[in-house]
Design a protein that fits this description.
With about 150 residues, the protein is mainly alpha-helical. The chain has six helices and two strands. It has a two-stranded antiparallel sheet.
């Protein structure tokens, strides 16, 4: 086997335990917040599209049962992202609006980056939905800079 054969390279050394811990902590935090972000972004989209975000519509689009949505909406209310009005559905607080805008921007940046790499639109949209929750601010800035260079801005 030649020197360029990757299979011949020794396995990388195990990283320091603190570095490992920080990496897993970051991933766990992203998992913890991604559902909140998805709900807030969807509620914002529903409000823009039709003026209301009803439990039934959220459940349909999230692919979950209405009781699951009801439980999540209670959490979003408790955490200050959403207010609920009887017979009117869910509405975002100013903090919820800001979070939705941040999530939408992050999603659009990741999607534009993937499109600039030549990924087809359906795959880019699907992949961006997952990546947007796990990408660091530094990586997101690099994605944005890359896209701007590609667009000649």
């Amino acid at each position: 086997m030649g020197k360029t054969d990757k299979a011949a390279d020794p396995a990388p050394a195990l990283v320091d335990a603190h570095v490992h811990l920080d990496r897993f902590r970051q991933v766990r935090e992203a998992h913890r917040t991604e559902l909140v972000e998805d709900y807030v972004e969807l509620i914002s989209d529903l409000l823009v599209d039709g003026g209301e975000a009803r439990q039934v519509d959220i459940a349909t689009r999230m692919g979950v049962a209405q009781p699951t949505v009801a439980k999540m909406l209670k959490r979003l209310v408790r955490d200050g992202w959403v207010v609920q009005r009887p017979y009117r559905g869910a509405f975002l607080t100013p903090a919820g609006e800001a979070l939705a805008a941040e999530c939408r921007q992050r999603h659009q940046t990741v999607e534009r980056f993937l499109l600039a790499l030549g990924i087809d639109i359906d795959t880019a949209r699907r992949d961006a939905e997952g990546i947007e929750h796990h990408v660091s601010a530094a990586t997101l800035a690099a994605f944005e800079a890359f896209v701007r260079r590609q667009e000649g801005r």
